[in-house]
Amino acid sequence: MNRVVHPIEEESFRRLRARLDTSHFPPLTRAVVERVVHSAADLEYASDLVTDEEDLVKAHAALHAGAPVVVDVEMVAAGITRRETVCRLRDAKSVAGLTRSAHAIRLAYEQVGPGALWVIGNAPTALEELLTLDASPALVIGLPVGFVGAVESKAALRESGLPAVSNVSEKGGSAVAAAALNALLYHPTSEETL
Fold first, then answer.
1. Cα angle for residues 97, 137, 105 (degrees, 5° grid)
2. Is 64 a known active-site residue?
C-alpha cells in the first residue's frame, strides 16, 4: 500500500538533503538516518546513529511479513502510524530490583515471544531488561534518552551482537525511536517497487 506524502514533508526532506548529504548511505540506513534527523531536526544524528544495513534488510523483511512490534511506552506507539504495536506498560508494576518499564518488557516478551521488532525510546531500564531475555529479536531500536543509563544501555545493546539501531550519545526519545521504525515501514518492499 503506497503512502501519500504531504507536500510539507516533501519540502522538509528536500531541505534536509540540501543541508546533509546522505547519498553515501545504503538504502535502508539512509531511510533511517533521514527519518530520525527529520523527526528531531537534528543533523548530528547522521554521525551519532549506529546501524547495520544487513540487519535493517532482515528487519524490513520481518516487519513486512507481519512480525510483531513491541514498544516501551505509549508515546512511541503513538508515533508509529501504520502498524499496531504491543505496549504492556499499563499492566506492569514496579517491584524491588525491577522498574515498571522493565516489567513491561517481560510482559511483552511473554505475549509475543521471539522474532519481534522492539522499539525502545524512553526507558534505559526497558532496554537493559530486553538484553537479559532470550528474545531473538528481528531488530532492537534502542534509542532511550537521558543522562542516567541511556548511553550505557545503548552501548550494552551494541556489545550484545543483536541486530540493532542505536546511537552513541544521550540523545534519543520516543519521536526518534518511532521515526526509525517508520523508516522501515515506509520503505517500499520489492513487490511495491515492481
1. 30
2. no
Q: Are 153 and 124 in contact (CB under 8 A)?
A: yes
Burial annotation 34-49 (CB, 10 A radius, 16+ → b, else e): bbbbbbbeeeebbebb
**Pairing mode, if any, of strands 49-50 and 164-167?**
antiparallel
What would the pLDDT profile of 138-154 be if each residue is shown by its tens digit? 999 999 999 999 999 99
Per-residue burial over 157-193, b = 16 or more CB atoms within 10 Å of its CB, e = otherwise: beeeebbbbbbeeebbbbbbbbbbbbbbbebeeeeee
pTM for the model: 0.93
Find how far residue 29's CA is from the centre of its chain. Answer: 12
Q: Which of 6, 38, 60, 64 is catalytic?
A: 38
| Planar angle of CA 91, 93, 95, nearest 5 degrees | 160
